[in-house]
Every structure is written in C-alpha cells, then in structure tokens.
Design brief:
By secondary structure, the chain is α+β, with helices and mostly antiparallel strands. The chain has two domains: about 30-205 and about 320-395, no CATH class; about 220-290, PDZ domain (Pdz3 Domain, Roll). Helix content is about 60%, strand content about 20%. The protein contains eleven helices and 14 strands. The protein has helices at about 1-25, 45-55, 55-90, 115-140, 165-170, 170-210, 225-230, 250-255, 305-335, 345-360, 360-395; strands at about 30, 35-40, 105, 110, 145-150, 155-160, 210-220, 235-240, 245, 265-270, 270-275, 280, 285-290, 290-300. The strands form four sheets. Strands 7, 8, 9, 10, 11 and 14 form a six-stranded antiparallel beta sheet that branches.
Length: about 400
C-alpha cells in the first residue's frame, strides 16, 4: 500500500482535490443519465463568438471538409475495432487496440501514461475539441447555452452546449459540420503535434545524443533466459560477449551469430549477466532471449555533458514526451469520438444520417442496433485482455 501511495500520489491527490471541489460546488452541477456529472459555466463563450464572427467563412469551409473527414474516420475506426476483435480471438500475442486514457495506465505498445503529460494533453485536447464545436455552431448562427466540464467516474472531459432545438431545425450540413468539428480538430491537432515533434524536437534530440544501446519493455515469459537471469525490464543493454552494442541492428547481428543452448555474456548499464540462450518457439534453430518491445536508446554526447547541456537535454526530453502523448491522445480521442455510439460525435452523425435515409422511427431502430453492436465490441476489446490475463494466472 505504501509503495502504491508513493508511486501514484500525484494522481490520488488530483482526484481527491477534484472530488472535494465537486462536493463544495454541488449546487452548480447536474447529474444526467444517472452517470454523467455536468458542471456548466459561461467560460469561453465570448472567445468562441469572436473567432466565429471574424473567420466565419473559413470556419464554415473547414466544417464542410470536416464532414467528409468525419465519415472517413467513422468507417475507419469501425473497421479497426472489428479487425482488432478478430485479432484478439485468433492471434495469441495480439493486444487490444483500445485502452482507457488515464494516468498511470500502461497503454499497449506506448508505455505508461505519466500524470502531467495526461493532465496537460487532456486539457489542450478537450479545449480544442469543444471550442471547435462551438465556433462552427456560431459560424452557422446557432446559439450556445453554456460550456463546462463532464465527469464519468475518473474520466474527465469538456463540453459546449448548443441550443438543441435550434440545431435540430438547422440545415443538415450545419448539423453535420458542428458534430464533425470536434474530432476533425483533434486530428488536425495531432498532425500539428506530430510535425513539430518530427521536424524540430527529434532532430534537436538526435543532434545532442548518440546511440547508447537497446532496451526492452517486457519479457515474453518467466521461463525464458532474460527473465531467469533477472535482467530488469527496461534495462539498457550495451554489450554482448564483450562487443559494444549501440543499436538494435547490432543486437540482431549478435543474436544471429549465436545458437540455442549457447552461453553468452550480456552487459547492461548496471551489471553483466551470463545466460544460456533458449530455442525460438517459432523456429527451434534460432536463439531466443525472451524479451519484447526492443527499442534503441541514446545517451548525451560528450560536448553536452555540462550542467547547461543536461538542463537543455532534460527540457527537450520532457517536451518530446509531452508532444508524443499529445499526438497519440489527440489522434486516439479524435477517432474514438467518431465511433458509431450514441454519446459521441460519430454516433450522432450516423443517427442523423439514418433518420434522413429511413425516417425517424425506422432509422432510430436501425441506429440502435448498430450502436449496440459496436458498444459490445468496445466493451469486449477492453475486458477481454484482462480476462485472458486472469485466466492465464488461474490455469
């Protein structure tokens, strides 16, 4: 318990403060659908109005582009969810493509989401998403009632609340534009973050550093050599059999020159290990160390190994991490909001389309069947890896 509190104190403190604020301001929030807490404000409405009036035609144009991008995204994320389900069922090593976006959560293939990166990124993403809805709505002269924050358990979001009755009476293109605006803006934000990361931060980081070995994120299993030898997950491997190892190509070459059953020495930044290579489960003629998610590591160049250089390096590394998570979360949340589910933008777009194509009653029945199907897929994608892990432990 003490270790848990030490490791997760920022997250625990944040949620305790949030709960206390909600209790203190309980008269200012509403409970909707028995699970959603809505905290309504007027914050940002003047800024939304100013942007919408000044750039009305550009906003409308981007809104129209967003409609097409929204439907492409809706089809794409639906296909990904179905394919991911098939992979989970037929491929033993497959991981879920869906994950809760919470601090401290180990996102498959991405690592653990740090608290401060989560807090900053979610704030930026939520503001961009909801302000985009509001700006496009005002560009089409649709009134806004409020802005605010929404809470679903530990999941935090924001909202801009248009006048629903006025919106229902507006043109189809205006409704589609407003609905698609949030996800479209998140995808644009992700692309901008990715460009900044790849064109400025990464080149600067590469200039200051040089290859310094390889690391791995996890074991394939406790029965393989790396786990048996006690090499810690995340350890940086710098040499094999006395030869310096700088990047993954060197590591792969060293493995190719070895055989199952051979004893090798493996040097890390902390200590040196002796271990006996196992046979690869897929090809018994190949050696196997039993590590997964191998990546190159870099170290600071000698000329930057000063106090100022280390401060610059730490600052650069921090911003690289922030923009990496901003890219991943903004793209992921933007696409998630295009799923054909009732409470997200993609679902509302599909619902409106079904009503137009089949009439309100028939279209609503068909939409609910589609939404229920994808809701079941989503829940299964989130729960199945946990069930698989628990069953593996039990049996």
């Amino acid at each position: 318990m003490l270790t848990f509190l030490v490791n997760y104190w920022p997250i625990i403190t944040f949620y305790v403060i949030l709960i206390l604020i909600l209790i203190w301001r309980r008269k200012h929030w509403d409970l909707e659908s028995k699970i959603l807490i809505l905290y309504r404000t007027k914050w940002g409405l003047k800024l939304i109005e100013k942007i919408a009036q000044r750039y009305r035609e550009w906003v409308k144009l981007l809104g129209y582009i967003g409609i097409g991008a929204g439907y492409v995204g809706l089809i794409g994320i639906s296909y990904i969810l179905i394919k991911n389900l098939i992979d989970l069922l037929v491929k033993p090593q497959a991981v879920s493509g869906m994950s809760l976006v919470l601090p401290g959560i180990n996102v498959p293939g991405m690592g653990v989401l740090p608290f401060w990166y989560w807090l900053i990124a979610i704030f930026i993403i939520a503001i961009v998403h909801e302000f985009s809805h509001g700006i496009v709505a005002r560009a089409h002269n649709l009134p806004l009632k409020s802005t605010g924050f929404v809470f679903l358990g530990p999941i935090i979001g924001a909202f801009v609340e248009p006048d629903e009755k006025k919106m229902e009476k507006s043109s189809d293109v205006a409704q589609y534009s407003v609905l698609a605006a949030g996800s479209f803006s998140n995808i644009i934000l992700a692309l901008l973050a990715g460009l900044l990361l790849s064109l400025t931060l990464v080149p600067a980081y590469n200039y200051m550093t040089e290859p310094a070995g390889v690391s791995f994120a996890k074991y394939f299993g406790p029965e393989f050599p790396a786990a048996k030898a006690g090499i810690p997950e995340g350890a940086v491997i710098t040499g094999v059999n006395g030869q310096t190892l700088k990047e993954s190509a060197d590591f792969e070459k060293a493995m190719r020159n070895s055989k199952p059953g051979e004893t090798i020495s493996l040097k890390t930044t902390e200590k040196e290990y002796l271990l006996v290579l196992a046979a690869n489960p897929d090809d018994a003629s190949l050696p196997f160390l039993g590590i997964a998610e191998i990546k190159n590591e870099r170290g600071l160049k000698e000329q930057f190994n000063t106090l100022a250089g280390k401060i610059l390096y730490d600052t650069l590394s921090w911003f690289m991490g922030l923009f990496k998570w901003l890219f991943l979360l903004s793209m992921g949340i933007g696409l998630f909001n295009l799923l054909p589910l009732p409470i997200v933008d993609g679902g509302k777009m599909l619902q409106l389309t079904m009503h137009k194509l089949s009439g309100k009653e028939t279209g609503e029945r068909r939409f609910r069947k589609i939404a229920l199907f994808f809701l079941a897929l989503l829940i299964f994608s989130l729960v199945f890896p946990l069930l698989k892990k628990w069953l593996g432990v039990l049996f």
